[in-house]
Amino acid sequence: xxxxxxxxxxxxxxxxxxxxxxxxxxxxxxxxxxxxxxxxxxxxxxxxxxxxxxxxxxxxxxxxxxxxxxxxxxxxxxxxxxxxxxxxxxxxxxxxxxxxxxxxxxxxxxxxxxxxxxxxxxxxxxxxxxxxxxxxxxxxxxxxxxxxxxxxxxxxxxxxxxxxxxxxxxxxxxxxxxxxxxxxxxxxxxxxxxxxxxxxxxxx
Length: 204
Prior knowledge:
This protein has six helices and seven strands, in the order βββαβαβαβααβα. By secondary structure, the chain is of the alpha/beta class. Strands 1-2-4-3-5-6-7 form a seven-stranded mixed β-sheet, sandwiched between helices. Strand 5, helix 3 and strand 6 (128-133) form a beta-alpha-beta unit. Residues 159-171 and 199-204 have low confidence and may be disordered.
């Protein structure tokens, strides 16, 4: 993959070797600032968060990996990497441990990043200051909301189809994590939210 021009992606690349593969990530902003971990989905990569990184990196430490197989990370074949949720969670855990982040993290998730990020957060609730939930599906639907017909079709194994990216059977988030979550409608809402101390009541 060709790196985008500097005016579009003006960030320094970092790499972490995991199971013999290089995982690319960005680490922008003051090292002692509150950390914000942004997890992308498919088929995007860290480029997806470029404007948010630019807006936040003056006051926050923005950590943004490219999942293996995406962006500027290595793209191993199936014989070299186990492309399943468990591996993705372990990759994020390895990155967080490698960076030795001392403060609780604001976790921003989008698309498949929700499945990966929330699965990691459930195992590490003490490392989470709050979560920001973009367009993702890493939790069960509310009881009064029906699954869209198109998604119901691909989730119906009786029809002979399957959706390998489905996370609808993911266990509900613990209340301690749900109470830290924001579902922003606009980027301005997200940025304003990050300015609020984690222990403060969430905006409505």
